Amino acid sequence: MEEVTAQESIQTSGEFERQPVPTSQLKDWRKFLGMYAGEHAAGTEFVIGPLFLTAGVSAFDLIVGLLVGNFLAVLTWRYITTPIATSERLTLYYKLEKISGRKLVTGYNLANGLLFCFLAGAMITVSATAVGIPFDMPMPALTDRMPTSISWVLVVLGVGAVISIVAAKGYDAVSKFSNIAAPWMVLVFLIAGIVAAKRLGVSSLDDLWAVWGSGSEPFPGQIKFTFWHVTAFAWFCNAAMHLGMSDLSVLRYADRNSVGWTSAAGMYVGHYMAWISACLMFALYLKSPEAEAILAGGGVPPVAPGPLSYEVVGISGLVCVLVAGWTTANPTIYRAGLAFQAIFPKSFTTKVTLATGAIATIAGLFPAFAMKLLDFVAVYGFILAPIGAVIFFEHYFAERLGMVRNYAAAKGIGFNMAVLAAWLISMGVFYTISVQQGVFLSFFTLPAWIACGVLYLVFSKILQKK
C-alpha cells in the first residue's frame, strides 16, 4: 500500500495541521461567536454551577467573583492568545514542535490530548444524564467513580458515538453545530434560572440574599470557596485554552485580533449566567424532601444535570443538557484530535479524531471526571498553561535577547531541554507548595505560567550560548 505523506494528509483533511492557515480560509467574528457561546454555555455549566454550592460559596462571592474572573479571562484571550494566533497561523502543536523539537512535543501532545479527552468524557457524562431519564436510568452520585449500571454504559456509548462523528468532520462542522445550537441553549439556561428563582421565592437581590445568604458549610470532601477562589477558578478554568495557547488551533482562522473579544460570549453567557442559573436549579433541589432526607442522613445529594433541568423546565431542559454536552465535547475532541494528529502526522485527521472520540467516550463511562470537575479543571489548566508561556515569552522576548526563535526547527534538533526544564520546574515547585500548604491549585496557575516563561528564557540563553 502506498504511503500517505504528511502534505497529502493536509490537502485531504483541509485542516492545515502543519502549515499556516492561508488568507483565503480566514473567518470573521461571527464564526467564533457561536462557537464560544456554544462551547461555554454547555454541559460543564450544569455541573460546575451546583458544585459551587457544594463548596458553600456565598451569593456575593459567586456573583462578583464570576464578574471579575471572567473579565480577566476575556482579556487573556484577547491580548495574550489571539495576537500570537493571527501572527503565526499555526496550531499549538506544530508551533510547539518548532520550538521544542519533535521528541519533546510528542510527550506534551500525548498529555494534552489525553487531558482534553477526559474533559470531553465529562461532557459525554453530562449528556448521558439527560438521555437516561426516559429509561429510568440510575444517576451517578457526587461520590461515584465507576460506571453505575449497564444502562449507563449503553447510553454513554451511544452519546459518545454521535459526538465523535460530528467532531471528526472538522472545524467547519464543529463551528456550524455550535452556531445552530447556541442561541436556543442560552435561552433555556436563562428560562431555567428564572423559573428556579421564582420557585425559590426570589424576585430581587434582597430575596436572593435571604435564600442564599452568606453561603454554608461545604459538603463532605469539598473545600470552602471564597471570592478569591471563585475569581481564580473563573479566570483559570480555561487556562489551557488561553494562557496555555491551545486556542491557537482555532483562533489561527481569525481574520483580525478583535475576534478575541468573542470569548466574552462564552464567559458571560456560559460562565456567568449559566453557572448562576445552574446554582439556582441545584438550590431548588436542595429544598426538596429527597435532598433534605439525604442531608439529614449525612449523605451527599446527587449532582445530575439531567434530573435537575427536567425538574425545572421539563423536556426542553433534557434536550438542552444533551445538546450542551455535545457543544462542549465537539471542539474539545477536535482539539485533542489535533494533538494526536501531531504525533501521527501521516494519519488522516478524520480517523485520528474518531479514535480520540472513542477514548473520550470510555472516559465518559466514569462519573468521577464530571463529579470532581472543579478539581479536574483546576489541575488540567495548571498542567497545560505553563507550556503556553514558552510560546508567549519566545514570541515577544527571544529576538530582543539575541536568541534564535523556533530553536528546534532552526537547529534540526528533536529535544529542547530548556523547554522541558522550565515546564517541569515551574509545575513541580508550585504544585508541591499547593499540596503541602493545602492551597487551592488555581491560585498558582499564573505564578507557574510566569515562572515557566522566565525560566525558559534563562535556560535558552545558556543553551544557545553554548
Automatic annotation (TrEMBL):
Residues 1-14 have a biased composition (Polar residues). GO terms for molecular function: cytosine transmembrane transporter activity. Residues 1-22 are annotated as: Disordered. One of its GO terms (cellular component) is plasma membrane. Keywords: Membrane, Transmembrane, Transmembrane helix. The chain crosses the membrane at residues 59-80, 108-130, 150-168, 180-197, 225-244, 265-288, 308-327, 348-370, 376-393, 413-433, 439-459. It comes from the Bacteria. This is Pedicted L-rhamnose permease, NCS1 Family.
